[in-house]
Write a structure and sequence with these properties.
The protein has 287 residues and is of the alpha/beta class. The chain has one domain: Inosine-uridine Nucleoside N-ribohydrolase, Chain A. It is 39% helix and 17% strand. Strands 3-2-1-4-5-8 form a six-stranded parallel β-sheet, sandwiched between helices. A two-stranded antiparallel ribbon has the order 6-7. A two-stranded antiparallel ribbon has the order 9-10. Helix 1 links the parallel strand 1 and strand 2. Helix 4 crosses helix 6. The longest helix has 18 residues. The chain starts with a strand and ends in a 6-residue tail after the last helix.
């Protein structure tokens, strides 16, 4: 399976999300995934933070040969080198590329500006984000941070014209990572364990719980194992104004975008086993 990963990875920065980085490790360790490139966007950090952390992660894992591109640094930015890579690669491999997107979607919107046939060339888009209702975790009401960061781009992607699968925030709550899981991941070196432990502490203090959630891993696992999720075709009728807050408006009447929005992980134990097996194939050695 040929995949391009569009992300806002900040793994390794103090008090920053790590699920994009864990997703990158999973993709590198998944035998049937051919990772053609990684494009970066602002989101969990600014574009320089995201680009430099992703470059460092790939180098540390000895995958520095994978193409890496800077993308959108702010909402509505004109096309970047990331958008050019997306547009050119999709056009060169029509019907073959799965685009996994786990941050704001501006790079995809910009690629479609450069090539109006961009989405037609893709096999599918699989992404993560959006709320069906307010999301409360522990003692916090959490804002939506993916679809809302560039709502015009989100609207364009939802209406892409190619198959779109979206994992919203609520289904992602079925996949958590806690202290038991960190003990299970003894194959990680000290530095990787330190990063994950620090995020467990940071998220735990912020929300008052003892786990964090594997938001971006759900769409990544879906790429190879669709059978682990229910199929749930829905019509999303969100306007750009709705998407300013990441709100997904679902309805059967009127115009909208027909997408797949799974509601359940059907086999959670197998889902977790796949993650740990892929992670173990990509050992982060201590330097």
């Amino acid at each position: 399976m040929r995949v391009i990963y569009d992300c806002d990875n900040t793994m390794g920065l103090p008090m920053k999300e790590i699920d994009d980085g864990l997703t990158l490790l999973y993709l590198l360790g998944q035998p049937d995934v051919e990772l053609l490139g990684v494009t970066t966007t602002f989101g969990n950090g600014d574009i320089e933070e995201v680009y430099s952390q992703t470059e460092r992660l790939l180098d540390d894992l000895e995958y520095g040969n994978i193409p890496l591109f800077r993308g959108e640094r702010e909402r509505g930015q004109p096309p970047t080198e990331a958008a050019r890579f997306l547009a050119d690669t999709a056009a060169a491999h029509p019907g073959e590329i799965t685009l996994l997107a786990t941050g704001p979607l501006g790079n995809l919107r910009a690629a479609a500006e450069m090539d109006p046939a961009f989405f037609v060339h893709l096999k599918q888009v699989v992404c993560m984000g959006g709320y069906l209702r307010p999301l409360r975790i522990g003692w916090r009401n959490l804002p939506e941070l993916n679809l809302s960061a560039d709502p015009e781009a989100t609207y364009r992607v939802l209406h892409a014209g190619c198959p779109v699968t979206l994992m919203n925030a609520h289904v992602c709550l079925q996949a958590s990572f806690g202290w038991r899981d960190l003990r299970r991941a003894r194959f990680w070196g000290r530095e990787m364990r330190r990063i994950v432990r620090n995020w467990l502490l940071t998220f735990g203090i912020y929300c008052g719980i003892s786990v964090f959630y594997l938001w971006d891993l759900l769409p990544a696992v879906y790429l190879s194992h669709q059978e682990l999720f229910d199929e749930n075709p829905v019509v999303v009728r969100s306007s750009v104004a709705d998407l300013e807050t990441g709100t997904l408006v679902i309805g059967d009447e009127g115009e909208g975008a027909l997408i797949n929005m799974p509601t359940r992980i059907l086999e959670l134990e197998r889902f977790e086993a796949l993650l740990f097996a892929a992670w173990q194939r990509v050992l982060w050695e201590d330097k």
